[in-house]
């Protein structure tokens, strides 16, 4: 899958031609103050339903976060509609030509409390007063400045397989946890140092940069479009790549290789490996790093116990699961006690 951003007219034409009758998957987000999210939601739904848009869109008082698919032939119409909304005019879109056509089956536009579940109390600060967006060139420049502190706003299982050289990578399971940790580490430099942050696609930094400005940091910068957009610019403009390893992504690919270095270890044997898998025991489903030889030995499971359960007939496994919650699913990614080489 290739990502396209900020297309020139010619690039867009080529992309639409390539897509033909296909659909495009598009994602974008924007923090903005929306007075009546319900009304805005209805406005979007009516227009997009007519344009045969499918997808999952969240609207809140704080903005919009959209993942959707649009028939390639109707892209111009879709874009014109977005440009008609003042805070979405010329918004950066992540666009890919959809191959399996299975991303979305319906159009769902939902009003939520938040567009990103961040656990923060919004009323304390203004999310639209965010840090300065920087592109890959400026970002490279900033992070080679000794007066800069570079912070990775992602979680431990993401930074474990790849991050920027020299970045602080807080050992956290959630975004909310990382904010005070970083603030405490940097509290003596609020005025002098450059605080530069990045995440996967940029959305977490939108919030984090506003938070840090509110907390008194003077020079706050964020990588626009995150690692995804950085990688694209590095390739397109032949810039020096300062990201090592893989970028963890939230679709079926799991991760995108950005440099050849393997910076992580198999959680079971310690061999160099950066491939995330989920434990094959459905009652566990733990996300962890497993090398091919451990995968074979453990039958794709995280522990001997899971291996035993996984070997049972399916009906028996189901009976065992009954009434039990799947505790590893979300917050214990890669943290299980059974893994000897977890980071
Ligand atoms: Zn291994
Ligand atoms: Zn397991």
Characterise the protein shown here.
The chain is an alpha/beta fold and 343 residues long. Helix content is 30%, strand content 20%. It is built from eleven helices and 14 strands. A five-stranded mixed sheet has the order 4-1-3-2-5, sandwiched between helices. Strand 13 and strand 14 (287-289) form a beta hairpin. The longest helix is centred in the first third of the chain and has 14 residues, at 37-50. The model has no long low-confidence stretch (mean pLDDT 87).
Which tags fit this structure?
343 residues; alpha/beta; 5-stranded mixed beta sheet; globular; binds zinc ion
Brief synopsis:
The chain has helices at 9-19, 37-50, 75-83, 136-143, 156-159, 175-185, 203-214, 226-237, 292-297, 304-311, 314-321; strands at 23-31, 54-60, 63-71, 94-97, 107-111, 132-134, 148-152, 162-164, 194-198, 219-223, 243-248, 255-257, 276-278, 287-289.
Topology:
Blueprint: H1 9-19, E1 23-31, H2 37-50, E2 54-60, E3 63-71, H3 75-83, E4 94-97, E5 107-111, E6 132-134, H4 136-143, E7 148-152, H5 156-159, E8 162-164, H6 175-185, E9 194-198, H7 203-214, E10 219-223, H8 226-237, E11 243-248, E12 255-257, E13 276-278, E14 287-289, H9 292-297, H10 304-311, H11 314-321
Parallel strand pairs: 2-5, 6-10, 7-9, 9-10
Antiparallel strand pairs: 1-3, 1-4, 2-3, 8-11, 11-12, 13-14
This protein binds zinc ion (2 copies).
One zinc ion (ZN) binds at residues 266, 268-269, 271, 291, 293-294.
């Amino acid at each position: 899958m290739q990502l396209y951003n900020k297309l020139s007219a010619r690039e867009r034409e080529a992309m639409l031609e390539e897509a033909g009758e296909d659909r495009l998957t598009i994602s974008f987000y924007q923090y903005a103050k929306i007075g009546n999210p319900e009304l805005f939601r209805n406005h979007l739904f009516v227009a997009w339903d007519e344009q045969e848009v499918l997808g999952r869109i969240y609207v809140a008082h704080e903005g919009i976060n959209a993942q959707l698919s649009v028939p390639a032939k109707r892209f111009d119409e879709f874009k014109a509609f977005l440009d008609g909304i003042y805070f979405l005019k010329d918004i950066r879109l992540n666009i890919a030509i959809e191959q399996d056509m299975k991303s979305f089956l319906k159009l769902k536009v939902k009003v939520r409390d938040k567009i990103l579940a961040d656990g923060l109390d919004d009323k304390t600060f203004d999310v639209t007063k965010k840090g300065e967006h920087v592109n890959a060139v400026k970002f490279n420049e900033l992070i080679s400045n000794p007066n800069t502190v570079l912070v990775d706003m992602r979680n431990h299982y993401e930074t474990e397989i790849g991050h920027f050289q020299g970045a602080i990578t807080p050992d956290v399971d959630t975004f909310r946890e990382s904010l005070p940790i970083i603030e405490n580490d940097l509290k003596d430099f609020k005025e002098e140092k450059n605080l530069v942050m990045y995440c996967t696609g940029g959305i977490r930094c939108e919030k984090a940069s506003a938070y840090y400005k509110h907390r008194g940091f003077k020079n706050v910068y964020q990588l626009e479009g995150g690692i995804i957009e950085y990688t694209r610019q590095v390739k397109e403009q032949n810039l020096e790549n300062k990201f090592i390893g893989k970028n963890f992504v939230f679709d079926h690919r799991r991760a995108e290789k950005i440099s050849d270095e393997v910076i992580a270890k198999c959680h079971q044997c310690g061999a160099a490996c950066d491939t995330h898998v989920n434990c094959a025991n459905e009652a566990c489903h733990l996300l962890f790093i497993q090398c091919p030889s451990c995968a074979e030995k453990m039958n794709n499971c995280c522990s001997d116990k899971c291996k035993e359960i996984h070997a049972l007939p399916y009906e028996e496994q189901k009976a065992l699961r009954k009434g039990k919650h799947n505790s590893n699913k979300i917050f214990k990614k890669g943290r299980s006690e059974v893994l000897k080489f977890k980071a």
